Amino acid sequence: MLLVSQAFGYDLVIGRDAHSVRYTQTDLLALDDTILETETPWTDGLLQFEGAHLATVLDDADIRAEQLLASALNGYSVVISVATAIEEGAFIAVQMDGRPMRVRDKGPFWLVFPWSDKPELLNREVRSWSIWQLQRLEPVE
Fold first, then answer.
1. What are 21-74's pLDDT values in tens digits?
2. Are strands 77-81 and 134-140 parallel, antiparallel or unpaired?
3. Are 76 and 13 in contact (CB under 8 A)?
């Protein structure tokens, strides 16, 4: 199956300049084909997300940083604490309910958290980190 990121050129770029790595949806699934079931503040009901843990992706990209600047296709950006995000189960989703996520479905990459298991994450800060249409993660120095 050809995934959206391959068909339309939407890749997730992690790093900065010459030290960056590009990932397709398929690449992330090959790294850590994990399933996260959770509700989100922006959708109805329990959803099944497939993708990779943020920790796994950062390790693969050899990124060591205390903070990341996360940027979306629409220009939204936010600084994320790496240690806190990883500790709280940050997950880069590329499929939702068995289907590749498209831009109109908050994809092709969406940083989600296990809100159903950890309702305390439904706070302003973590919600701001849950960036959909994620395009880039850059270390902040």
1. 999 999 999 998 789 999 999 999 999 999 999 999 999 999 999 999 999 999
2. unpaired
3. no
Total-model pTM: 0.90
- Tell which residue, 77, 31, 69, has the closest CA to residue 53: 31
Structure tokens at 22: 């590009």
What is the bridge-based pairing of β-strands 21-23 and 34-38? Answer: unpaired
CA distance 31 to 79: 24
The distance from CA 138 to its chain's CA centroid, rounded to whole angstroms, is 13
Give SS3 for 1: coil
pLDDT at position 9, please?
A: 58
Distances (CA, A) of 75 to 69, 106, 141: 12, 14, 21
